[in-house]
Each structure stands twice: as structure tokens, then as C-alpha cells.
Amino acid sequence: MKGGETVTTYKRSNIIKNIVRVQKLHQRLANIHLEYVKSVVNTVVKTKPMYITIEDLNVKGIMKNRHLSKAVAEQCFYTFKKWLVTKCEQHGIELRQVNRFYPSSKLCSCCGKRKKDLQLKDRTFNCECGTILDRDYNASLNLLQAKEYTLLT
Ligand SMILES: [Zn+2]
Questions:
Q1: What residues flank ion ligand 1 with Cβ within 5 A?
Q2: Are 79 and 35 in contact (CB under 8 A)?
Q3: 34 phi and psi, to 5 degrees?
Q4: Helices marked H in 47-93 — which ranges?
Q5: Which residues contact 52 (CB under 8 A, 6 or more apart)?
Q6: Structurally, how many domains does the chain consist of?
Q7: Between helices 3-46 and 70-91, what is the axis angle to 10°?
Q8: How far apart are alpha carbons 55 and 107 in whole angstroms?
Q9: Where is each Cas12f1-like TNB domain found (predicted)?
Q10: 114 C-alpha vs ligand 1 centroid, how far in Å?
Q11: Domain carrying residue 34
Q12: pLDDT at residue number 30
């Protein structure tokens, strides 16, 4: 009797089982990401905006978050944009994209003055003109007012 072979076969089948288990987890995670992306886009589209402006983000540059791998983030942004294009086309919403060099975070959405020393850790945008806004909210107002963009839909 060749006991060794039995053990090897047993081990191998366990390894295969574990690989399948991990693959299933990856698939589940991918589905969760996709459902999340879809729900965010659907929520935005339901507000029936005349247009939506997005930024062509440099994923490599902004990936400081260790909880999300670069590959996952790139996939998420890609899926997000793809789904956004689809939904905007369906609902006749103009989709604008400003390029990645547009300083959406550094401009004051009120007076237009550019802040040179804004750092990633600064969560609030303070301007000499008296404007005090959440950093991302200020950036979104700048995107709203952006004059240079390419049309995606
Ligand atoms: Zn200002």
C-alpha cells in the first residue's frame, strides 16, 4: 500500500479547496465593490443633474491608503467611471471630465485665488477672502464651475 500517495493526494485536494475558497472570497469582494459603485452612481443620477463633472484622477499619485491596494482602487475608479458613463447616457446627463492637472483642491471656490501650500492633511480649505469650507466640498464646487473639460457623454 502506498500511504505516501494518499497523503499527497489528500493534501493536494485540501490546497485546491483552499484556492477555490480564496477565489470565491475575491469574487464576493468584487461583487460588493460593484454593488457599492452602482448604488453611489444611481444615487447621484436620481438627483437629475444637468451635468456631472469628474476628475481624471491620477490613481498612482493618490494611493496613500493602505487599506485599499492600488489594483483594487484602479479597478474601482475604472468601474465607477464606466458605470457613470452608462447611466449618464441612459438619462441624458452631460458628463464632463477635467484633466488631472486642474487644481480643484487648491482653488478657492469663492474668489478663485490659488492656495499654494495646501497639503493632503489639510481637511479644511481656508482662504484670505474669509471662505472656510470642507476641502472636498470646495473641490467639488470648483469642478461644478470648471470651464475647461472634455465631454464623455
Ligand atoms: Zn477666497
A1: 108, 110-111, 113, 127, 129, 131
A2: no
A3: -60, -45
A4: 59-62, 70-91
A5: 44, 84, 88, 93, 94, 95, 96
A6: 1
A7: 40
A8: 14
A9: 77-143
A10: 8
A11: 3-151
A12: 87
